[in-house]
């Protein structure tokens, strides 16, 4: 129901019944039943994002300057329109974009007072001041659609508002809400080979979820969240040895790499569901590509999975710029500014799990944002920047099974 409402789909009992009776690939694509028309519409929105969103963003910046761009997103509630927000000259921008996009009838240009550059500077100033003043701003969302910054904190709300006004000005576009950002750190092992979406355990007692198998300069790796452990810790896939982690980064990203023991089988699959017993079965999604970090947009649907999931959980990307600053179990500061917040929940043990969509690797599950007055959400670090920082060249897309 949360998925349907978030994407602007009919949430009536009749619509749910029609979706349940449909014979299509909706559950494989989005983790929920959809009617044929709904599935076609969501796939069409995907196509509009792929075709036009990068072009629209680049055209505004190149033709009008970075100070003009306030955001680019898919407006799912508004019927699937690609929305470009600018700080001025909307008619000129609309005329320019209509000539270069593939789907001009799906394009809308709106005006917002603050550019993304200006909002990012406010986040930077708040983070620096919070560190100096000892403030707990564990999560900050740069919301392109509202053109505001939303701060989640466990500190006193009114006192935090006063401090923000003193720090960045009383008129700054910043909202404060109660909320806690916490690392979340699967399924039982059904059998080797190594793959994403599986429960993995460390020798020092921590449980996380494997993200993807990957290739690097010195062989193959399993990727998971950096806050799951420091380097030099041994990991296994519930009895199947993986190896000893050799790198764990929690600054600028949140990713850990585990070199796979030579001779171990691994595959480019991600486990979506698994049951035991006489009727045991497993369902996988094969990873065939990896998303570039510049190719995702607010309003695009991403999915996550982890040890607490029986399948995919999907939702729209709320922001591409979620700022995280929180301590892990080892006392290290997990900090980055470009987290992807998705409208889906995750829980302890899901850390490191894959973010994906339709066979495309998109990220590594990092933290849960718990809000007493709103839906809990999940944040993942993008796979592109994570691989670059951790020294991995590419997610494994060849298969079905490779021997290292």
UniProtKB/TrEMBL annotation:
<dbReference type="GO" id="GO:0006508">
    <property type="term" value="P:proteolysis"/>
</dbReference>
<feature type="domain" description="Peptidase S1">
    <location>
        <begin position="218"/>
        <end position="386"/>
    </location>
</feature>
<dbReference type="InterPro" id="IPR018114">
    <property type="entry name" value="TRYPSIN_HIS"/>
</dbReference>
<feature type="region of interest" description="Disordered">
    <location>
        <begin position="174"/>
        <end position="198"/>
    </location>
</feature>
<dbReference type="Pfam" id="PF00089">
    <property type="entry name" value="Trypsin"/>
</dbReference>
<dbReference type="InterPro" id="IPR001254">
    <property type="entry name" value="Trypsin_dom"/>
</dbReference>
<dbReference type="InterPro" id="IPR009003">
    <property type="entry name" value="Peptidase_S1_PA"/>
</dbReference>
<dbReference type="GO" id="GO:0004252">
    <property type="term" value="F:serine-type endopeptidase activity"/>
</dbReference>
<protein>
    <submittedName>
        <fullName>Trypsin-like serine protease</fullName>
    </submittedName>
</protein>
<dbReference type="InterPro" id="IPR043504">
    <property type="entry name" value="Peptidase_S1_PA_chymotrypsin"/>
</dbReference>
<keyword id="KW-0645">Protease</keyword>
<keyword id="KW-0378">Hydrolase</keyword>
């Amino acid at each position: 129901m949360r998925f349907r409402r978030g994407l602007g789909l009919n949430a009536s009992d009749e619509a749910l019944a029609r979706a349940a009776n449909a014979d299509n690939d909706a559950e494989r694509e989005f983790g929920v039943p959809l009617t044929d028309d709904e599935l076609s519409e969501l796939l069409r929105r995907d196509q509009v994002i792929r075709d036009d969103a990068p072009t629209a963003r680049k055209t505004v910046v190149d033709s009008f300057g970075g100070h003009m761009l306030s955001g680019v997103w898919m407006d799912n509630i508004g019927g699937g329109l690609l929305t470009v927000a600018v700080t001025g000259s909307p008619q000129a921008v609309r005329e320019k974009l209509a000539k270069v996009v593939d789907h001009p009838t799906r394009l809308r240009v709106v005006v917002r007072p603050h550019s993304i550059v200006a909002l990012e500077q406010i986040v930077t100033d708040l983070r620096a001041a919070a560190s100096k003043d000892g403030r707990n701003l564990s999560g900050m969302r740069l919301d392109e659609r509202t053109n505001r910054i939303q701060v989640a904190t466990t500190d006193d709300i009114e006192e935090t508002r006063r401090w923000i006004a003193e720090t960045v000005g009383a008129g700054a576009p910043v909202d404060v809400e109660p909320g806690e950002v916490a690392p979340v750190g699967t399924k039982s092992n059904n059998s080797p080979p190594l793959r994403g979406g599986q429960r993995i355990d460390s020798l020092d007692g921590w449980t996380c979820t494997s993200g993807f198998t990957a290739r690097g300069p010195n062989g193959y790796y399993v990727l998971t969240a950096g806050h799951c452990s420091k380097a030099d810790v041994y990991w296994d896939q519930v009895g199947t040895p993986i190896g000893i982690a050799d790198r764990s980064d929690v600054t600028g990203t949140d990713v850990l790499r585990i070199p796979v023991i030579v001779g171990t089988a691994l595959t480019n699959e991600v486990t979506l569901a698994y049951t035991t017993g006489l009727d045991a079965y497993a369902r996988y999604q094969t990873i065939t590509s990896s998303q570039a970090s510049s190719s995702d947009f607010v309003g695009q649907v991403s999915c996550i999975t982890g040890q607490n999931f029986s399948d995919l959980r999907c939702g729209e990307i709320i922001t591409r710029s979620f700022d995280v600053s929180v301590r892990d179990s080892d006392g290290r500061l997990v900090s980055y500014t470009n987290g992807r917040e998705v409208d889906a929940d995750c829980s302890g043990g899901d850390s490191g799990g894959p973010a994906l969509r339709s066979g495309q690797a998109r990220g590594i599950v990092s933290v849960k944002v718990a809000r007493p007055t709103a839906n809990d959400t999940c944040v993942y670090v993008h796979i592109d920047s994570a691989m670059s920082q951790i020294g991995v060249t590419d997610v494994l897309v060849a298969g079905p099974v490779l021997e290292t």
